[in-house]
Description:
six-stranded antiparallel β-sheet, 21% helix, Tumour_necrosis_fac-like_dom, cytokine activity
Amino acid sequence: MHSVLKNTHNNKIKVPQTEVYELKETLTIDAMREKRLRQVKSSMLEIRKDSSMVDRRPAAHLGVSPTINTNSLNDNLALRILWDTSRSPSFITGDLVFKQDRVVVKTPGYYFIYAGLQFMMDPAIVSSSTIVTYVYRDKNDTEVNRKKLMTSRISSCKDWREGQAGPTSTYLAGAFLLHEDDEISVLTTSQSMLQRLPATTYFGIHLI
């Protein structure tokens, strides 16, 4: 074991060289740990910053509401589908405004819009040979500036005409330039046959 020596000329304590090396090595390891800790903290802050930016980005995915639009008893009319933000996996972020049957845009830009709908084709309640689904853009909840963005048609098939019920689906998707206060809604001519499951009937809009 090394001993500590005292220098009579300057009264300084000399540490054996091996202990100096060990001390330097310890300080180096501590410094590296401290540096690494600062890097980790910095990375975590960047991740949180990026996450907060993602959370603020206008986006929504909405599952269908179990409630049928009370104005949709006449299937010959295309009326808005009601949506529900509380049904998983629904979410809405950013400055989009949700109004039960439509989403209002506040940040102008190009948006990816999609809608998936499933119908139970029951001949007993069919009033039309074709089910039509629309995605519309309105302004201030008026039809004056209404623009049809997408359309889907489901025509009758042999099994349907022969009285065999069964599910069928339609999907619409596209990118569109939207402006502040544009309102996006999904309409269909047959809400009575619309399946009320958020996994099969949904509507989404995301700023690109």
